[in-house]
Design a protein that fits this description.
Layout lengths: L2 H27 L4 E3 L3 E4 L2 E4 L9 E6 L6 H17 L4 E6 L3 H11 L5 E3 L5 H4 L12 E8 L2 E9 L8 H7 L23
Parallel strand pairs: 4-5, 5-6
Antiparallel strand pairs: 1-8, 2-3, 4-7, 7-8
InterPro entries: DUF899_thioredox, Thioredoxin-like_sf
Pfam family, one: DUF899
Length: 197
């Protein structure tokens, strides 16, 4: 197929994706929010609550990160570092994992992460939000919360998987001949760390 023909077909696919995204936003606008408790977390300073993570905002994005054992979660988190300064102009943002705060800090220092991290170790947060598998393994994704007075509501969530929209690297690779190819550490199959195993 000629280059110009392929470009036209790909442009059409991108228009279809944009239309589907608009349908998703419209569907999400009609969702009845889910009240949640004010979960307790820990960070390097001590204990804090879900309500503390909002900061000055009414909305909050919390990433369900599987911790240092998952190379994909590290890849996703590397991406948050670049957009964090922009996200926090619109909503609160934090990354939650089962790792101890000291482990989170060591990882953040090593990777140069600037976003806040909290540990949900010892709480039912990840399980209640649906990010623990039937086998008891952690699962990656994010939940979005809204503050309504003293009530915290979950308004949306989604799981992560390799190749998704939450890591721009995949979309750069999609443009290359052969896609991801034999990029180190990546296979076509979903790794066990991202399957909740």
């Amino acid at each position: 197929m000629r280059y110009t023909d392929v470009n036209g077909k790909l442009a059409d696919y991108r228009r279809q994706i944009a239309a589907i995204r608009e349908q998703m936003r419209e569907t999400l606008a009609g969702v009845e929010p889910q009240p949640v408790q004010d979960y307790e977390f820990t960070d390097t300073e001590g204990k804090l609550h879900l309500s503390d993570l909002f900061g000055e905002h009414e909305d909050l994005i919390v990433v369900h990160n599987m911790g240092v054992a998952c190379s994909y979660c590290t890849l996703w988190a590397d991406g948050y570092n670049g957009i964090h300064q922009h996200v926090v102009t619109r909503a609160g943002f934090a990354v939650s994992s089962p790792d101890r705060p000291s482990v989170q800090k060591r990882m953040a220092d090593m990777r140069g992460w600037k976003f806040p991290m909290v540990s949900h170790q010892g709480s039912s947060f990840a399980r209640d939000m649906g990010y623990v598998s039937d086998k008891g393994g952690w699962m990656p994704g994010l939940s979005v919360f809204r503050r309504d007075g003293d009530t915290i509501l979950r308004v949306s969530d989604t799981g992560f998987s390799p190749g998704d929209d939450f890591c721009v690297l995949w979309h750069f690779f999609d443009m290359l001949p052969g896609g991801v190819g034999a990029w180190p550490g990546v296979t076509a199959a979903v790794p066990s760390c991202c399957s909740g195993g």
